[in-house]
Amino acid sequence: MKSSIIRSVVLSFCFASAGILAQEQATEKVDLIVEDKDSEQPASSNQETVKANKEQPEDAYAYVEEKARNYISEKRRKFSSQNKQVFIHSGTAVIRLKPTEAGWADARVLAYTEAQQKAREKLLKQLYTSVASETIRKSFKTNKLPQFTPSEIENQSKLEALLSKVVALADATIDSQLEELGVNPSEYNAAPPSKRKNMMQKAITQSVSTSSRGDITGSQIMKSFEKTDVNGNTAVTVVIATSNKKKNFLASLRKSKGNIEPSPEKAKLSIEDYLEKHRSNLMYQIGTKMHWDEKGYPVILSFGMSGNDCNISDYEECVDNREFSYLDAELNAWAHISEAYNLVGSVDSASTTTSDKSRTATVTLTDDNTTETQEQTVAKIIKETSLTSRMASSVKGLTGVQEATRWSAKHPVTDREVNGVVLVWHPLAEQATRAFKANKNVKKKVPGGKVSFDPKSGESIEADDEDF
Length: 468
Prior knowledge:
This is DUF6844 domain-containing protein. The chain has helices at 2-27, 46-55, 60-81, 104-127, 150-180, 244-255, 271-277, 315-341, 427-437; strands at residues 87-94, 130-141, 194-215, 220-228, 234-242, 287-292, 298-307, 344-365, 371-392, 401-410, 417-425.
């Protein structure tokens, strides 16, 4: 009898679900004691990336993390020996799309952003952290089994007697219809009424939460690594660093209004020559970078990137998309400048871990109104972990920033198109802009001497240790 009731309910549900499915299918003057000795090195050259790709490790994520770990260890030992207080951290991320997918180039840019975010989170935690923790222990035991009341037993007997006559005639029909739907009627025999009760429990829960909020202005990317493994997974690592010297230097540039004297002894390549020399490697440069031009003026370069998700066989689509890709890259470069001058962040993380052991008793009412008892013991570990971080920047009245160049290139490993825009802040450009807006002339200054510089191929446009 109970079996027939359950089969009736299940059959009605199956028919309703089948109807819904059918419908869905149908509708379906500043401190300038800063020298960037390695400023001519590309962020990660084509040759370096292709060479690394040929190594074909099994785990790209572990590969770049190890690269970053070794690099940071070396730098920390060096800074410590020089009695310098430099904060240096790294972050790693995986490009979530496969190289064969159209949005891979944009996913690559976001992977660098994610890696940078993770490194900034570590910096925030080191500088500003509040911690709260709580541990709760619970123990419980009883020997009182769950019971059926006399009225529950009596009502169950009356209900069975009444319904047995109602469902008897439809029983065979229901079974045949369930079979037509591919459902075994015997699987839906009604289970006898039962009660469950927790007889014993031993549990302990530990909760930890941290909150970090503060200013991390002046943190810049010092190094980056990129790798694709044998399975086509690509991972990137970003190393950031900051110090009071770096932070104060950037602040002094921001407040200088371009009134900066050149330091001829620091002169390197002109901006145009530098960018042209490393044009094929600009896709590996992320964020902002200090550079000294041919006259010895400090210059801030900001590198923005964006992908082109067009069908590579459709020329017109690729050309049309490139215009928007350049715009996205320009905005990306503007963001880097803003973050160099003013950046605040927050990180909130929490973790809860529970160890629980419990014994449950199940009492079942049989057909002859007697009870059967079964007990089950279960031990389990439950973990919940969460993290939310936010980085925000805002700078008003930027003056003297202009586009230095834009570029378009194919990634040497995946052949996906990457586009970029390089913005540049130059003190003379800020002076000229302010003079133009005020309808005044700018006095020309005598150019400083030029120092020759023989760049070498490397993994990154590495910020010089003297910057910090």
